[in-house]
TrEMBL record:
Segments traversing the membrane: 15-33
Protein name: Uncharacterized protein
Coiled coil: 56-83
Key words, A-Z: Coiled coil, Membrane, Transmembrane, Transmembrane helix
KW Transmembrane helix (keyword) present: yes
Length: 116
């Protein structure tokens, strides 16, 4: 009698795994669809590469240097506001101590530049 109970639990597991897989794929698709690509100009691309390095090193000093440079570039209007907003958002993430998340955001911004 105990074996019948165990068998019914085993039979229901593939359904649960399938359901979780479908939900996970749906959420991943929703993220991909809603993810807005960041367009970086040449200056923004170079700054993002430097920011990626700083995030990987977890360098507060490097982060401050990049932020100071961006503030200077803002006054000179040296690169686009969309790039500026994306980079400042990444800097805020790193300042909050979320270095890995900031590095992933840099990497994503750089990958967004690749023609697909």
């Amino acid at each position: 009698m105990a074996r019948n109970v165990e068998k019914s639990n085993v039979d229901s597991k593939p359904w649960v795994v399938g359901f979780i897989l479908v939900v996970s794929l749906g959420l991943a698709g929703l993220w991909w669809w809603s993810h807005s690509r960041v367009e970086l100009d040449e200056m923004g691309y170079d700054v993002t590469i430097a920011l990626y390095r700083v995030c990987n090193q977890r360098s507060d000093d490097g982060l401050q240097q990049i932020e100071n440079q961006i503030r200077k570039l803002e006054t000179e209007q040296a690169f686009s506001s969309a790039a500026n907003q994306a980079i400042m958002s990444i800097i805020a993430t790193a300042k909050a101590g979320q270095w890995q998340k900031a590095a992933r955001a840099c990497r994503q911004a750089l990958e967004d530049q690749v023609q697909r």
